[in-house]
Amino acid sequence: MSARDPIAHVRAETCFVDDLLEPQGTLYAAVFGSPVAHGVVCVLDANAAAAASGVAAVFTARDIPGENQVGSVVADQPLLAADRVRYVGQPLAMVVADTPTRAHQALKNITVTIDKRPAVFDPRQAAENGDLIGLPRTIAMGNVDAAWSQCVTIVSGRVDSGGQEHLYLETQAALAIPRPCDSMHIFSATQSPSSVQRTVARVLACPMHAIEVEVQRVGGAFGGKEDQAATWAALAALAAHRLQRPVKLVLDRHADMQMTGKRHPYTSDYRLGLDADGRFLAFQATYYQNAGAVADLSTAVLERSLFHATNSYAIPNVRVTGICCRTHLPPFTAFRGFGAPQAMVVIEAAIVAAAETLNVPTWTLQQKNLLCGGDIFPFGMRMQGDTPRRSFDAAVSRFHVQSRLADIERRNAASNFVKRGLAVMPVCFGIAFTTTMLNQAGALVHVFVDGSVSVSTAAVEIGQGVATKLRRMAAAALGIAQTRVRIENTSTTRVANMSPTAASTAADLNGAAVRLACGTLLQRLKTVAAGIQGVPAGQVAIRGGRVWIGDAPSSLTWEALVKTAHRKRVDLSAHAFYATPELHYDRQREKGRPFAYHVCGAAVVEARLDALRGTASIESVEIVHDAGRSLDPLVDRGQVEGAVVQGIGWTTLEELMVDPDGRLLTDTLSTYKVPDLDFSPTTIEVVFLDDTADSGAVMASKAVGEPPLMYGIGAYFAIRAAIRAVRDVPAERIRLPLTHARILQMLEGE
Ligand code: LUZ
Ligand code: MOS
Residue limits of the Aldehyde oxidase/xanthine dehydrogenase a/b hammerhead domain (predicted)? Predict the structure, then answer.
């Protein structure tokens, strides 16, 4: 990875898995998915496909030498379905041929007879049937039941939020290359090389050391390749192992949209109680999560929903319950925000309902109830710092919320058809994997005799700029120019047992490990320098690629120092390990400290509604965001802007539709709309909160990947406010996404 990455991207020179130079004799795989949502497989006939021209082999469950299992949290997901299918698109067979076209053509020759069983797509129905994954979980604080009697205002309602297709530009892809001595080299478009390694070893019944998984870069992932890249890599590896030929499997867009999981749809019930001053006294909610057919990461996603049920607010009495419901849809999976957006939209809907009941501006209720430093979350963790309040107040004043609301009211009264609406959306997002054990990282740093430096970590460059940040951190730690530092491909052979690049933590965890490894090297090199210069090691520093004694630069350069150290037989490689301190969580008591810190901020979102045509657009999103001491303001700004647009897409545009048989209807880019430049707000202003002394992460920075997505929730409520300038719409039933079709329905009172 180099600083030239962005340049390569715009020139389309970047190499993704499908662009890698293929070894001679590479074969191509295509996957046959179940045409039925739920049923028992009677006959799977692949004979015609196997005989088709160019086809090397067809594989089914019977051909798997090891375990037919890819479930990472729960062992409930076969690599290839054997006797029962549980969703449309579930892999049943794989064709391998000498060209991708022939592999795809041969799929048409496969026939399957399936004895259909009843299929359920609605999570509430699944819950009624008792078809749950794990037990329902409840996190509680205070005494909700007793608190209702003290409430002056109580609102209740239901919120339904839809799924979301990741639409990473690079589809799921893997290239498996057999190596001598029963080993295999796999290039995978994954966020989690070690998960791919573990899954392939399991499926092939070989030790993990026989499998090297390598990732150069991934063309977008957004959570879709945290758990779900493993299936495609394992299929490619299975074929490569059986045929002893390199095998490439790249899903085309259509197959990717049909076969892979998306953001979890939720349907939730809430109740919020307020005292006479508008303070939140009690909040209760039940979240029915549509998990799809297998567990995947659903229980972890649901846990994060519960941890974010109260978003940025302090509420003394809370009881929230999450129910993971099994349906006959492709397994829903990680998606930027990981369950937090689905929960935050519920508390925001509750606050809007309360504000409309009390006839007060929503932002005043929000502001009155913001978390302060020292407040306790329902899961027992204490809020550190005042960033929810500081960012909210800063956003309200800096972006003139009060005067703009008055102005909007005036303009709305003066216009019959053009209506405006404004919403403030605070976000408070916990940083760390909620699965405590995942909060670990290793780094391996080599200094070569010419002074160039090679850094290997678990971080996968997905376009989020983690390589840029790591490079900067390594260079700063060693006191040398960034041009001397190379961030290597992510490989399971260089760093073992890697956690996924996920949960916004890649720069935090891997950066901390890199700094530790660099610190070890620096100490060794300083000792050598001190010996050369004849001064105590404490007086030596390395800055600007040269050795300094106290405040004075010496003539000893970084290169000369490294050469000398090598001659003196000093180890110029260092491995370091970092585990986030002080994390713990007790799932029996549902109390603990699951997060290292929180990232907070607030957005002001303004929408413009054309009430005649029933269309709306988001005019502006203005944000005060806490990035700590940013490791790279440009990277962080890009992350915030991209996340906001993705969040607005989820709340107002992107709609997954499934037919009564469980077949995805929106499986092309013509039927599934995602934000483009034209759709994006004209203005996205990002102001970084300064002076955030409470930062917990490396070099006083803060994680940035996921939190800003939830600013996009404000888009829903801004458009809703504009619609309310036309007619009253009840708040008890909120449905996302708020598409143009739904806007029109609301305008017509449906
Ligand atoms: N993945 C995961 C995540 O395994 N655990 C998490 O807590 C998480 N959070 C956000 C995104 N991915
Ligand atoms: Mo993720 S939702 O893979 O951080």
Answer: 11-118
> Any idea what the CATH number is for the domain that residue 493 is in?
3.30.365.10
Instruction: Please check whether residues 336 and 424 belong to one and the same domain.
Output: yes
Atom of ligand 2 nearest to the CA of 505: 4
Overall average pLDDT of the 42-71 stretch: 98
User: Where would I find the H helices in 415-465?
Assistant: none
pLDDT, position 1: 47
Question: Beta 317-326 vs 137-141: how paired, if at all?
Answer: antiparallel
Pocket test of ligand 2: the residue of 304, 332, 338 to mutate, having most ligand atoms within 8 Å of its CB, is 338
| Structural domains of the chain, count | 3
- Domain membership of residue 123 (yes or no) is no
pLDDT for 695 beyond 80 = no
3-state secondary structure of 138: strand
Residues 547 and 656 in one domain: no
pLDDT tens digits, one per residue of 185-219: 999 999 999 999 999 999 999 999 999 999 999 99
Amino acid identity, position 623: I
Say whether both 679 and 718 belong to one domain.
Answer: yes
Residue 380: count of CB within 10 angstroms of its CB: 17
Give the residue from 579, 611, 634 where a domain finishes: 579
Give which of 284, 270, 275, 327 is closest to 132, Cα–Cα: 327
* 191 Cα: distance to centroid of ligand 2 (angstroms): 9
My answer on whether 446 and 356 are in the same domain is no
- Domain membership of residue 279 (yes or no) is yes
Question: Which domain covers residue 462, as residue numbers?
Answer: 440-579
Amino acid at 169: L
Spell out where 199-265 has E strands: 211-215, 247-250
Is 128 within a domain?
no
The tokens describing 697, both together, are 């992460």
Query: Is residue 459 scored above 60 in pLDDT?
Result: yes
Cα→Cα distances 15→9, 19, 178, Å? 9, 5, 21
Give the number of whichever ligand sits closest to the CA of residue 336: 2
Active site residue 706: yes
Beta strand ranges found along 458-560 (DSSP E): 485-487, 490-491, 540-543, 546-549, 552-557
Predicted-complex ipTM score? 0.95
Please indicate, yes or no, if residue 149 is contained in any of the structural domains. no
Q: Which of 706, 732, 748, 750 is catalytic?
A: 706
